[in-house]
Amino acid sequence: MDNVSLFFQIFNLNGHFWVLDQLMIFGSTYLIYLTFLFILFLGFKGGTKAKKAFLLILLGIPIAVLLIKVIHLFLYEPRPFVNFHFLPVVAEAADASFPSRHATIASVIAFSYTYFKSKWSTLFLLIMAWIGLSRIYVGVHYPLDIIGGFLVGVISLTLSLQIKRVLTRFLIKPL
After folding, report:
1. Measured between alpha carbons, how far is 133 from 168 in angstroms, rounded to an integer?
2. pLDDT digits over 93-111, tens only?
3. Among the listed residues 105, 84, 115, 114, the one whose alpha carbon sits nearest the alpha carbon of residue 149
4. Does residue 120 sit in helix, strand or coil?
5. How far apart are CA 133 and CA 142, in angstroms?
6. From residue 26, how far is each of 20, 32, 73, 105 by CA, in Å?
7. Rounded-to-integer distance, Cα 136 and Cα 15, Å
8. CA 146 to each of CA 7, 99, 108, 119, 167: distance values in angstroms, whole numbers, following the listed order
9. Which of 35, 70, 77, 104 has its C-alpha lying 20 to 30 A from 96's C-alpha?
């Protein structure tokens, strides 16, 4: 099955189940902001693993945004609603579709907690999947945009960990 066919299989589910529609609208629009508030709370009030994950997220998100900007210099994929001339379920700018910024940021968050083996890892992985699926469901991203976003998140975390190692090695000297 190709990217467009899978997109339409998921997108065509909307409008049939009111509760599912509302969950997907929430997941595609507001869940990322609620997640930011929660990681901010964990960054200050959580345990050691949650605080380490929060610091990695603070380094990883700017790198992820920079990687997305670089990708957009070389690759521009219009959003599905632009290509196929329909109204998405949620309002969205008609900018580049690949990779999904929401999916990228959600993966930076989820994989940061997973890297530190935090008790919150499963929750954030579920949120990441919810956000990714909901962005397809509401018609603003193709499945490959979401997978690409997850990969950009992993790459940005890998770069963040390398930067952290260099900074630790050269800035923090043992006594």
Report:
1. 37
2. 878 999 999 999 999 999 9
3. 105
4. coil
5. 10
6. 10, 9, 30, 16
7. 14
8. 11, 6, 13, 25, 31
9. 35
